[in-house]
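Lab channel / #folding
Pinned by the channel admin:
"Please post every new chain as: sequence first, then the structure tokens as a reply. Keep commentary short and put observations after the output so the thread stays searchable."

First post following the new format, from NK:
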Amino acid sequence: MSEAAEAAPARADCVADSAGGLTFHIADWARPGPGSYDDWSGALVLRRRGAADAPDGEVRLPLGPTADGRLQAALPSNVALPEGRWDIHVAYRDAEPQRLAPGLNDLRSLVDRRPGPSTSPLSVRIPYATKHGNLSLRSWRRAPHAEAGEIRLEDDTMAVRGRLYRVAYPSEWLGGAVIEARCRRGDVPVRTAALEVDGSDFSFELPFAELARSWDGGADAWDLWLRPADEAMPPARLARILDDVADKKEIFTYPPRTVAGPHGEAQARPYYTRDNDLAVRIEAPA
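Reply from TO:
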């Protein structure tokens, strides 16, 4: 049955904590079958899109009654949830799980979140409503993680501030590191930009003209990475995930800048991808 055709049997309220955990509360679920409310036997079922049949494509969380008459399930931050989009269901005993609709979300603890020092993967989970009115969850799990902050456009240059998380010694990791702009056309050379570092914080300026030098007249997308000087260490994708916005692509928008390319004038614009990763697009003027 398609998502649009499914009827959400109940609404779930979500409460986030600063560590990255979520608690789900269901108030109006009409449990099928005989028995009293006290003999509830059910689960909150999370299924990752495109991977429901994979070994890590489904997570079941115990679901039980609380003193205030609701049902509750907890997703702690230490439960490994692979990156992706997870559709949320409720299941009673052996019955087929049914989709949940979104209720009220208390995501205040996610706004301007500052994770503490650790080298374990950073877990970020943001619940959201799908276009069909169902409850889903966007999950990230990254180590190291480069959080993009303020972005300023100055003529034909973008100036970015950010912060590095989930490495043992951030200032050492950032020493000698550079920003890499990688074009999704594999035949284009990687462009780099220098970093200014202050502890875990970093900043850089990336001239759009450097990216436009390889423009072929079509549309080029450049992904931005933070690469340490030590090639044995993994790079970190620049992204913005430490807040309560699940999809930033249509919300965080930036005006285009005109730059000269080998095929005439081009437009350059930073943007966030569907995964909230930071990228730059070079294309012909609209």
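NK: Confidence is low (pLDDT under 50) at residues 1-8.
TO: also worth noting, The radius of gyration is 22 Å.
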